[in-house]
Amino acid sequence: MLHMVNKSPFTSSALDEAARIAAKGSPILLIEDGVYAARAGTSYEPKLAEIMKDHPVYALAPDLKARAVGKMTDGVTQVDYAGFVDLVEKDKIHSWL
Amino acid sequence: MDEEMEVNQNVKKVMFVMRKAPHGSIYSYEGLETVLITAAYEQDMTMVFVGDGVFALVKGQDTTEIGIKGFIKTYGALEHYDVEKIYVDRVSMEERGLTVDDFAIDVEVKEAEEIAALMEEQHATIPY
Amino acid sequence: MKFAVQVLEAPYNNQASDTAYHFIKAALEKGHTIVRVFFYHNGVINAINSAEPPNDDRNIYKRWTELGKEKGIDIVACIAASKRRGIKEGQIVEGTRISGLGQLADMTIEADRLITFG
Description:
The structure holds 3 protein chains of 3 kinds. By secondary structure, chain A is of the alpha/beta class.
């Protein structure tokens, strides 16, 4: 199952809860304000690195660009809307709002 | 058993993941309305309370003075709608200083791994 | 594949309606089917036909008309949530309709994937 998070980890527990509950190996997709979690050099970076030990992490490129998230934590994969659709085709999805 | 399985071939597993506290926003209340309507479709339904969602189940809520319609009693009606799988995430409950005795209805406490496994077997999951 | 889309937040206030639109467009381009779009919670505000967003910004309401009328996608605003927020039949965006929560249950069962934007 694909776990989608659209809230910043600095204001919401959504990503923490998603990562804690998501089955090991299941992918996490960051969209909208959720992409701030992927920004390198933040206090969340070590947590994201921890999460990435158990989950592949994707971030929606148009949202990264809109928010000027330049350098990302190593290992985060960018997807566009077409790639987003492909992820949803591959796996059922749950939104952690 | 075989016959029952045949009859239930078209029954889909649908899980409602309740993560919002009551009263401060409408998500929890309108989410519950969806659960009740979906129950009429006789699907295999599960409700799981995670994060602040667990606060919705706490007994003794009195909304008189805030003037908002309380809905804690509606959870008690869920069993009459054949919604019997009602689970609470253990960590969320404990983080909030709660035990099962604090809840207005009978719930089963689940570990994160158990919730993950349940999520994986759903046809669809709906977040409120 | 058959997708069902739920939108839970109001347009402009949140990005949910925008992301839902871009997702739907990308899904259609890949040949997927959108079984239905369902507006719930403040998402029903997406169906208000009297809104006038400024000309220099995207018109989210027109996007729903594009998807509903031109692409033939069934777009439904929940009746209970609409009534609660003062949205009535005859006041809704062309290409959308108002109906019950059963439409959400229906699409959840019918679609291969339910995706919620909020």
